[in-house]
Amino acid sequence: MIFPDNCKYLYYLVIILISKTVVEAQCPTVCECKTEYTAKCVKANLKIFPIGFSNKLQNLDISSNFIKNIDELTIRRRYITSLKQFNISNNVLELIDKKSFFGLGKLEKIDLSWNKIKKLYPDTFKYLPNLKWLSLQGNENLFIKDNEAFLINESLQILHLQNCNLINISMKSFDGLPTLKELYLTHNFIKTIQANSEAALITLQILDLSDNSLCEIPKQIIRLPNLEQLDTANNKIHMFYGNEKCDEICQAHQEF
Known about the structure:
InterPro entries: Dev_Immune_Receptor, Leu-rich_rpt, Leu-rich_rpt_typical-subtyp, LRR_dom_sf. The chain has about 260 residues and is of the alpha/beta class. It has a single domain (about 5-250), classed as Ribonuclease Inhibitor (Leucine-rich repeat, LRR (right-handed beta-alpha superhelix)), CATH 3.80.10. It has three helices and 17 strands. It has helices spanning about 5-25, 220, 245-250; strands at about 30-35, 40, 60, 70, 85, 95, 110, 135, 160, 170, 180-185, 190-195, 205-210, 215, 230, 240, 250. An eleven-stranded mixed sheet has the order 1-2-3-5-7-8-9-11-13-15-17. It has a two-stranded parallel sheet with strand order 4-6. Strand 1 (about 30-35) and strand 2 (about 40) form a beta hairpin. The longest helix is centred in the first third of the chain and has 22 residues, at about 5-25.
């Protein structure tokens, strides 16, 4: 005779087993998927993008592999349009197609750090209306044009460009990021900042220029209307233009 309590126990056990089977069926064998919303495929010796994810996937970590490119259909063929966070750092990425992220309108965070990206199309992230955070840190040969918008996105708030071996930067390069609040440019070799745009960086609150080779900071930077914190530590600065505001926002600057 089966007692009601036993039936109840068996019922829940069957539900758990079925749920586990469904999750495993929607997870590539090289990945770990604790739920259908999260997949971790770290250090899996991957050379190509895996398949078999749940279409409800929101957080994908595919860092520390050997993936070389993301073409136009790489992500769309996986039907992971609910993706919100995407980490593909520490791979060997060289090429990202300008349509790679089409159809991923829920994406909020993309980590492309420590790859081998040399160039990005300005429109690469243009159609991601919820993107807030982007890291390109450690792409040591990244090329940023100084006479046009480097990237175009109307929602991005935080951009990491540390350790990219940048030598010169231009304010105009950031014209396409009208909501940018934090910009991190530390640990480069920046010598000059071209103040060639009145529209760029007007929403910026935090600017980290530490550990570069700057000798001066243009007044257009100091006088950015919303700038609250400017870090210039470990540079060669001998001149701040517009220094009436500098006392409020400048950190660790040298005497001049």
